[in-house]
Amino acid sequence: MIDLRSDTVTRPTQAMRAAMARAEVGDDVYGEDPTVNALEERVAQMFGHEAALFTPTGSLANVLAVAAVVQPGQEVLCEARAHIARAELGVHGAVSGLTMRTWSHPTGGVDPSVLADLIAPDLGPFFVRTAAVSVENTHNFAGGTVLPIADLRAVRAVADEAGIAVHLDGARIWNAHVATGTPLIEYGGCADVLAVCLSKGLGAPVGSLMVGGADAVAEARVRRKRLGGGMRQAGILAAAGLHALDHHVERLAEDHEHARVLAKACGTDPDRVATNIVTFDHPDAAGVVARAREAGVAVGLVGARTVRLTTHLDLDADQVRRAAGVLARLVG
Q1: How confident is the model over 131-152, as pLDDT tens digits?
Q2: What residue ranges define each of the domains in the chain, with the CATH number in brackets?
Q3: Per the CB 3.0–4.6 Å rule, which of 34, 35, 193, 273 could disulfide with 212?
């Protein structure tokens, strides 16, 4: 089976497994795992922030990051298809006690004037107060689109003017970095808190990080334990992340090229594919998914009419060509 459902399906490379096997470990809940500490320090520096916190999942990293800047009863603004609004099972409301309002944008981006109009000031006991805006880069359900650094800076300026925080869901920020050449530290400079993932495009088996100021991360460490996310000898997992940062970032360009090959096969303009995700609408999307699987290609269904293909490091050029042939026969 050629698996295009997600870039989360990858398996650790032999070199990554070797790095995990030799990792020096300790009890991370006590802050004594040297490999976790090294990963957290490295990622914080990469994005120009004071600290970072290793978490088992990207959803938990997002929960901790948003909760660091939005109190219960306040709201966060985000795009209507944002991962925090659509794919985290309502955890921000159910657990953190916050609310959301959304805007819609064809590529998952943001119009600064629309954002400015949405922001609700503190009006006492009358309206929910906007505490933060969340942006996603790359945007998953918009097809892996990249939010340009100029747009992020515009969001930062609007937020600063209104006195609210910026959360960046950077699960695939590495893809945006490779696609545009924008330094990671510039992305980090546009946000108060970030969530970045190691188990998607970078191919680690587990792990994300919440990134931010030292006080925010210290509070997040308590929340992580409260939510059951404290891990013990987690250096075995952190070592996979360190290996991925050393070896799997620049190779993301291969995934982006593979995605354009698949897009062309599906009748989608490859020039509109920015990173490693291809989405297209089809009147019988579920049927396409089923027939592709019968032909040996697993693809994702992310809406009643929307099919998603995601390239990753477990795919070689021959597999991509074979998958493209199957998809061309079905939908191209």
Answers
A1: 999 999 999 999 999 999 999 9
A2: 14-247 (3.40.640.10), 251-331 (3.90.1150.10)
A3: 193
